[in-house]
Structure formats: structure tokens, C-alpha cells
Design brief:
mainly alpha; 2 strands
Length: 299
């Protein structure tokens, strides 16, 4: 199996794991608090993966990577994590959590758009309608069925922070994915374990600044273990490797399935009854991502 094929397979597994992130993160945040749950996930994931690096004598190899990659991509990674988990935790209810998740899933389209200035990819004119489809899907999903746009605007105005945080997360992840390709393409190992640990430390600091009420249960401990291993350690390591070695446009295009997976898993796990608008918005985001993929050709 060549490097590009291996990268594609790794990306598929990463996206499958990420499909469960929104649902499990919301469930954990309701029990432990937003910052408590997020800091526990990343401290556990970062600690385990960094311990593996030390035991396997790979830490020094990673530290020799480009400083642009280690610090630039590291900062983007931490900001992405903090923004995403704060967006999930500050959503008013579980339905808004799914809406916020959909805003975050604008990152596949944004990743493809940013390949143009960062990776010198070539684009067709259909890139613009592709982006508009994606943003239109988010707007449609965020407007509750049976409500007027005026009511939606009022709801957005009263609790705009989760949507804005999710958009910041989407932009940061799109930048991270492309800059990883540019700055660490020749690296043999990614620095994801270090990024995970740094995210955990930042979230712990925020946790001490904003104390939360926590309620530990057997379910929350199982959810924490799942989140630390699958959507965090494995998924981010797979994605980092795929973006360094794989076909960026193909890998990014595969990610258009993630919103659909997120909605399906979220509906089942959180027990949320959703209307036609959320499904339609999800399909529009996917259509926008596909259009963007077909509009961009990696140089």
C-alpha cells in the first residue's frame, strides 16, 4: 500500500470516529461541565500518546520537525479544540448542539478553498457556488421548522456565541490541515500527541478560571475513555498523517460525509427529534463540499 492510499484509509477511519464527537462531547459536558470534560479528554489522550512517544523513542524525532509546524500548527490545534468544545458546551440545548456541529463541519469546504493560497491549487468558477451551498445549509439547519426568519434572527442574537465559536473552529481546522501539509510534508512523524497535551493544559487552566459542577458516573467514565482513545488519539493522529502524506483534495473531499454521520449519531445517542430543515441543511453542506472538491485541483 503506497503512502497516498494509506493516507486515504487513515482519513476514512478518522472521519468515522469524528462522526461521534458532537454527541458524546455534549453528553459528557452535561455531566461533567464543558471545560472539565474537555480537559479530561485531552489530558488523558495527550498523556497516553506522549508516554508512547517516550517509550518508543520517537519524541526527539518529532522535536526536530519544522518550528513553523510545531508552533504554528500547534496553536491552531489548541484554538480549534478550545473553540469547538466551548461551542458544544455553551449551546442552549441538544438540538442547538447539532446545529453548532454543522457550523463546525464547514471546515471541509474551507479546507479546499484554502488549498488555493496555501498549496497553490487550481480552482474553477464553481468553487463560489459550492461555498454558498455550504453556508446556506448551515443557515437552513439553524432555522427551526415553523419559525420565521425574524424569530431565528432573534434566537441567534440571544445566543450567538456557540455559532461564532464553531465557525472559528472550522477556520482553524482548515488552516491547520493545509499548513500541516505545507510545513510537515516531509516529516516522518506528526506532533499530534504534543498538540493534544497542550490542548489539555490550556483547557485545565480555563477550568480553574471558570469552576464547574461535575457529576461522575459509570457512563461518563466510559464516554471519557471512548473520547480519549477513538475520536482523539486515533482520529487526530490518522488525520495528521493523511494530511502530511496523502492526497489533500481527495482526503478533504471524503470529509463531506462527516456532517451526515454526526447528525445520525447525534439523533440516536442524544435522543433528539429533528425536523426536515436539519436534514436538508446537512445535505446542502455535503453538496457544497462535493462541489468545492470538484472545483479544486491539487497542483
Amino acid at each position: 500500500m503506497d503512502e497516498k492510499t494509506r493516507g486515504t484509509v487513515q482519513a476514512i477511519f478518522a472521519l468515522l470516529f469524528w462522526g461521534s464527537t458532537i454527541a458524546f462531547s455534549r453528553s459528557l459536558a452535561e455531566k461533567l461541565g464543558t471545560l472539565t470534560s474537555a480537559s479530561c479528554i485531552f489530558l488523558l489522550a495527550g498523556g497516553l500518546s506522549c508516554a508512547y512517544l517516550i517509550v518508543s523513542h520517537r519524541l526527539q524525532r518529532i522535536l526536530r520537525a519544522s518550528r513553523f509546524y510545531l508552533f504554528g500548527c500547534g496553536i491552531l490545534f489548541v484554538v480549534y479544540m478550545a473553540s469547538l468544545y466551548l461551542a458544544i458546551g455553551t449551546a442552549t440545548n441538544r438540538l442547538q448542539t447539532l446545529e453548532v456541529g454543522l457550523v463546525n463541519y464547514l471546515w471541509p469546504s474551507l479546507t479546499l478553498v484554502l488549498t488555493i493560497p496555501i498549496l497553490r491549487s487550481k480552482a474553477r468558477f464553481t468553487l463560489i457556488p459550492g461555498c454558498l451551498l455550504g453556508f446556506g445549509g448551515v443557515l437552513l439547519a439553524s432555522a427551526q421548522f415553523g419559525e420565521s426568519w425574524e424569530t431565528f434572527a432573534g434566537n441567534l442574537g440571544s445566543n450567538w456565541a456557540p455559532y461564532m465559536l464553531a465557525l472559528v473552529a472550522a477556520v482553524c481546522w482548515a488552516l491547520y490541515s493545509n499548513l500541516t501539509r505545507r510545513w510537515a510534508r516531509k516529516s516522518q512523524s506528526g506532533a499530534v500527541p504534543l498538540f493534544l497535551l497542550a490542548s489539555g493544559l490550556v483547557l485545565v487552566a480555563l477550568r480553574f478560571l471558570f469552576p464547574e459542577r461535575t457529576e461522575w458516573t459509570s457512563q461518563s467514565m466510559l464516554e471519557l475513555a471512548y473520547m480519549a482513545v477513538f475520536p482523539t488519539i486515533l482520529a487526530y493522529a490518522f488525520w495528521d498523517a493523511a494530511m502530511r502524506k496523502g492526497n489533500v483534495t481527495l482526503v478533504a473531499s471524503l470529509s463531506y460525509l462527516t456532517p451526515l454521520l454526526s447528525i445520525i449519531i447525534g439523533t440516536l445517542y442524544l435522543g433528539v427529534g429533528i425536523g426536515w430543515n436539519l436534514w436538508a441543511g446537512c445535505l446542502l453542506v455535503i453538496a457544497g463540499s462535493v462541489t468545492c472538491k470538484l472545483s479544486v485541483e491539487e497542483d
